[in-house]
Design a protein that fits this description.
The protein is an alpha/beta fold and 381 residues long. It is built from 14 helices and 17 strands. Strand 2, helix 2 (40-54) and strand 3 (58-64) form a beta-alpha-beta unit. Helix 5 packs antiparallel against helix 6 (169-188) and helix 7 packs parallel to helix 8. 44% of the residues are buried.
Length: 381
């Protein structure tokens, strides 16, 4: 209870708020991101972090090695550590398995936090080819948070930071015990806003379970947005069951970034459409948002895609909100995105050529095989 949230759409709302908050820091900053690009936006955020360090603020930055890249992360480390900022990379060279840290979280002075889907990179440049301009700013969301929930987010970022350090077995076990005890009370409370994470320890299915519960209790409508759609069997069935019992289900999917990923998503189209689910492809620019609204009183914003990597392999972080005004605001933004998209027509899908159907089928088989291997068989469950 008593959390104050601000929904931030795209980088033109998120980055000014983030830099302003970094410039207001007095004690400490923890920043986690999957991608930290050395473009104009990245340099703007990096400069704010360096200004904070010059004021004596204790600054910690964690980036994912794969998402940020070897060369960029080393260059970033050199610049940040030169001014006293502590810097680390998550799982370089896959030394700790295949999992990536896909989370995007910032905590400032334990009083303000940001969480969502935006990386530290230029909103108008492609994620994959940093010199390729997008036709429009990337479509994404983040949330600014003040209130009791900030303590839960702070516990998560400090926990992941500690796990990247060299700790003895006894000290590591003591740390996990302290973190677990500290979280018991918040997890038992019914709150208007809650942090939901996925990791490969005790939160392996938390985000998927939260989505399943929300869909299972849906009565009127469900709006879901994801750039990559390839969930396991349980989530696909939950969407279909919700539609069959009369819930209006709309799924807005990003397309055009990865041909193989598009084919995997399209392999699910016939069954989803036959169940009455509205499928919309967003082609205006790169869709990167991972959000959902159910029944105008339940909403989620975060880093977790509705695919196998996010739901079964990577480290992710979402915020769950039970608030009608917040849900209405997010729903209105999703509806605008749907109007900008292209509806998938069931008759057009039926006219897919045999070659396209075969490609989609083998794309899904390949995806399923790889995900079952790296998720130890949890994918499709």
């Amino acid at each position: 209870h008593s959390n104050r949230l601000s929904l931030l759409h795209r980088g033109d709302e998120f980055f000014p708020a983030l830099v302003l908050a970094l410039d207001s820091a007095h004690v400490e900053i923890y920043l986690e991101t999957y991608i930290f690009s050395l473009d104009a936006t990245g340099h703007h955020v990096k400069a704010a972090l360096m200004r904070a360090a010059a004021r004596g603020v204790n600054v910690h930055v964690l980036v994912d090695w794969l998402g940020t890249g070897e060369a960029a992360s080393l260059a970033l480390r050199k610049d940040l550590e030169a001014v006293g900022i502590r810097f680390t990379r998550f799982n370089p060279w896959f030394k700790r398995g295949v999992a990536r840290s896909h989370r995007k979280m910032v905590v400032i002075d334990r009083r303000l936090a940001f969480l969502g889907g935006l990386n530290i990179n230029d909103d108008c440049l492609s994620d994959d080819h940093h010199h390729v301009a997008l036709p429009a700013p990337r479509w994404d969301f983040a949330v600014g948070i003040t209130g009791p929930l900030v303590d839960s987010i702070h516990a998560e970022v400090t926990s992941l930071w500690a796990r990247q350090q060299s700790l003895g077995i006894r000290r590591r076990l003591d740390y996990f015990r302290q973190q677990y005890v500290a979280r018991l009370k918040p997890l038992q409370e019914v709150a208007q806003a809650a942090l939901v994470i996925r990791d490969n320890l005790r939160n392996r299915n938390t985000i998927q379970r939260t989505l399943l519960q929300a869909l299972g209790h849906a009565h009127q409508e469900a709006w879901l947005v994801t750039p990559y759609f390839a969930p396991g069997r349980k989530l696909r069935k939950a969407l279909i069951h919700a539609a069959k019992r009369g819930v209006s289900v709309t799924l807005l999917i990003g397309v055009g970034q990865f041909r193989l990923q598009d084919a995997v998503a399209q392999s699910f189209y016939p069954r989803l459409l036959n169940a009455g689910i509205r499928l919309v492809e967003y082609r205006k620019t790169q869709l990167h948002a991972k959000v959902a609204v159910i029944d105008d009183n339940w909403a989620t914003v975060g880093s977790s895609n509705f695919d196998g990597l996010s739901l079964f392999v990577n480290h992710e972080a979402n915020i769950i909100v039970r608030d009608e005004e917040f849900a209405r605001t997010l729903r209105a933004a999703i509806v605008l995105g749907v109007h900008e998209g292209v509806f998938v027509d069931v008759e057009e899908v039926k006219k897919y050529s045999w070659a396209r159907r075969l490609f989609n089928y083998f794309a899904y088989l390949l995806y399923k095989t790889v995900l079952q291997l790296i998720s130890a068989g949890r994918y499709t469950k």
